[in-house]
Specification:
transport; 313 residues; transmembrane helix; cell inner membrane; single chain; two-stranded antiparallel sheet; mainly alpha; membrane; 2 strands
Length: 313
Amino acid sequence: MTQPTYTPSPAAGALVDPDLLAPFAQQDLSAEPRPFTPPAPSAPLAPLAAKRSFTKHALPRIILITFLVVAILPLASVGVFGFTNVVDGFTIAPVLELFGEAKAVKAVTNTVVLTLLTVVIGYALVIPTLVWMHLRAPKLLPAAETASLLPYVIPAIALVGGVNLVLRPLAPGFFVSLYSLLPFYVLMTLPFMFRTIDSGLRALDLPTLMRASESLGCGIFTTFFRVVLPNLWPAIVSGSLLVVMMSSGELVMASLLLHTTFPTLLVELGQSQVRLAAALSFITIVGSWLLMAAMVFAGSRRGTAHRATQFSI
């Protein structure tokens, strides 16, 4: 059996050079096509893959472990220094003895009261104002955001000193009271409350929520307390964390207005009883972390339950 070969037509031979068609004339057109074999990976790709694996998996773990060591080692050192002494070794007797004194109890109570009132008063002012601005005056939001940053650029010592000099002659009894710190604490924590609530409201379709609630017969207060506030709960928890940390650790304003709070007590102890001050610092930091974890856990549980309720509805 003769194999078919390519034979140029007379017309093609007249138009194309015969030397160019010669290789095709010798090609065996009846041969089976060879299967496609993908090329083997080249050797230089192996180091690149190992580098990407190290960057993706090992590097984040190394950074996390380094951060934990750097953060926990000084804290553990403070705890060991504060709860040990040469005579008794590890002991918590000085801390228990301190909290048996009325001065220490008063300082802690003042700090707790001021922190709780700062959170309540601050959000009572910020949330309704921002809800109204998002619904009725959205063009004023950039100006309000700029104004909320003023506490960042005004030093606390200048703010308290100026207000104290101007307003103390007009209301001397108010500045003697512990509650004279509340306006300053609310103003100091205003940027955190404003930004967290503003971000929460921007994530909601607030006009649609309000119209839907009104179409179901709810009044404005029912809509605010039963629709808007539950949807803002994660933002409120996040902002409350920052407000609690700032208010409970504030020192400059309380010292300038001559009020006794936990930070002023800590500074006073640090001048004469260094180990006791270190022990209190350790308790404060650990307590702050536990409080943050509890608030985050409460916020996540409530957010999960709220999403589950929405899904079931």
